[in-house]
Amino acid sequence: MATKAEALQVNKKKAKKSKLYQKESRAALLFILAPLVGYLIFTLYPFLFSIYASFTNWNGLGTMNFIGLTNYTRLFSDDYFISSLFNTFFMMIGIPIGLLISLLLAMGLNRGIPGTTTFRVIYYIPVVSSLAAISVLWQWAYNGDYGLVNQFLALIGIDGPNWLQNTSTVKPALIIMTIWKGLGYSMLLYLAALQSVPKMYYEAADLDGANSFQQFRHITWPMVKPVTFFLVITNIINGAQMFTEINIMTPTGGPEYSSATVVFYIWQKAFDNLQMGYASALSVVLGIIIFIVTLVQFKLNDKSSFEID
Amino acid sequence: MSQIRKKKIADSVIFVALSAGAVFMIAPLLWMLSTSVKQKSDVFALPPVWIPNEFDFSKYAEIWTAGPLLSGIQNSLIISLSVTIVGSFTSSLAAFAFAKLRLKNKNALFLLLLSAMMIPYPSLMIPQFSMFAGAGWIDTLLPLIIPPIFGNIVMVFFLRQYLINVPNAVIEAAKIDGTSFFGIFTKIIFPLIKPAIAAQFILWFMAVWNDYLAPIIYLNSPDKLTIQLVIANFNATYAIQTDYPLIMAASIIALLPMLIVFLIFQKQIIESIAISGVKG
């Protein structure tokens, strides 16, 4: 009898709990409904559709005939695509250079020099500035006759080229501008990482007689490695999607298509030439490249990982 | 003693280097400002004139009639504000559910949403375009507003991280009191994560304000363009006439709002970015 009553009570408790649980689950589902629906309609569906469209000769209007791998075989012999792919990766040379400079800046700022806040703000201003406005500005700065860059070079006796009209200088010009724009962001993250390094590590190293380079090599570098990893990934992902600068500064894709990026080419194919099936294939390739890069980076990081927390 | 002196010398050298770097960072922007108040003849002066003899602010009056600058600002404001206000609400509500409420397969659903971060926008833009073309939304602001108001997974991610550190006891007490879950969100959770929402809100607002690729795909009519497209058009149109003061004045107008927002909230912005980077 007693056990029965007990069991009844437990059951009641369970029922009560599950009722609350049900109510809670319903509320939770309702709260995540918007992002979930948004994901299905605006990410998952277009993503699958892209893959499907990449196997068709879709022109954006009506007909979508299945043409198998034709788009994919075509892109391997498409000189425009190959140059845009090359340009996109070439311009990533700026990533390690930018990271090195920002790490040095962050180390400089981490010494408690007066004016640190002001420096931080100044270096960060290009980051918050609109990329379109910055591109307009730099296009003018790279002007061969009157641009700021060549006027500066003239001061030290160098006769600068017409940066954006020249196949050999247009990519370096874009790289320099990209470094300039991104410096503040990487510097900020490095500075935050450096500030989280316990001071006693350096004090201990000092006692052991380690010189500055050894301290950098064995303390600073490993401690900022997670941030470097994060920055490399985000820079590659953003770099692979470079578009605005190209569209504004070299509207035709530069001399001999030497500054066109993959996204610029996709955009041209899809919305100028209305070759949406082919453009979809290009966009799938871009997606795969970004995915692989991310994966490789994760694997590399795993191998020589350093845990921050 | 010599150790301290050595550090002082090193600090001075670094201070000079940082100052030189700061000049490089700020010089292009100052030059932009200086060009915008120059007369045309000064623009092409060699050697360059940094401070013009006569400040000519007429271009700042001219830009408003030289192109659809005002409607550009309006359109950008409409898009940025509706996206960030509605989107912050949906995102924070979802973050609350993901961090604190019990739901079967909650983490699997969260991971599914996170996978969206791996898919670049260019891989989605063509089907999205054809969807919105089917809805007759081309050359309206709707394709730029509707998708993001369903929530921003980056914001959900950071707010969830923030909420996980909030003790459950606060919520359990309210649950026992019989407060509805939406009530718990508005009365307890929202005030608690307000600073985090504010930081994410500002960053998102800036990103939407500065966006270029999505607007250029959807918008054509001059009165529908966002501010970024308007200045790109200024650049394309007036560069032929070498009217650089006009172009630079318009670009400064496009830059200024975000610069002001940054200078006002620089402490919060810098802090939240630093945190996101270290955690990311």
Automatic annotation (TrEMBL), chain A:
Keyword Transmembrane helix: yes
PANTHER family from the UniProt entry: ABC TRANSPORTER PERMEASE PROTEIN (PTHR30193), INNER MEMBRANE ABC TRANSPORTER PERMEASE PROTEIN YCJO (PTHR30193:SF37)
Record family assignment: Belongs to the binding-protein-dependent transport system permease family.
UniProt membrane topology term: Multi-pass membrane protein
Pfam families, per database record: BPD_transp_1 (PF00528)
Entry's localization field: Cell membrane
Keywords from the UniProt entry: Cell membrane, Membrane, Sugar transport, Transmembrane, Transmembrane helix, Transport
Protein name: Multiple sugar transport system permease protein
Boundaries of every ABC transmembrane type-1 domain copy: 80-297
GO CC entries: plasma membrane
Transmembrane segments: 27-55, 89-109, 121-141, 173-193, 278-298
Single GO biological process annotation from the record: transmembrane transport
Superkingdom field: Bacteria
UniProtKB/TrEMBL annotation, chain B:
Gene Ontology cellular-component terms listed: plasma membrane
Domain ABC transmembrane type-1: 73-265
TM annotation in the entry: 12-33, 77-98, 110-129, 141-159, 180-205, 244-265
Cell compartment(s), UniProt: Cell membrane
PROSITE patterns for the chain: ABC_TM1 (PS50928)
Protein name: Multiple sugar transport system permease protein
Membrane topology: Multi-pass membrane protein
Database matches in InterPro entries: MetI-like (IPR000515), MetI-like_sf (IPR035906)
CDD domains: TM_PBP2 (cd06261)
Record has Electron transport as a keyword: no
Keywords noted in UniProt: Cell membrane, Membrane, Sugar transport, Transmembrane, Transmembrane helix, Transport
PANTHER family: ABC TRANSPORTER PERMEASE PROTEIN MG189-RELATED, ABC TRANSPORTER PERMEASE PROTEIN MG189-RELATED-RELATED
Recorded family membership: Belongs to the binding-protein-dependent transport system permease family.
Main location: membrane
GO BP, one annotated term: transmembrane transport
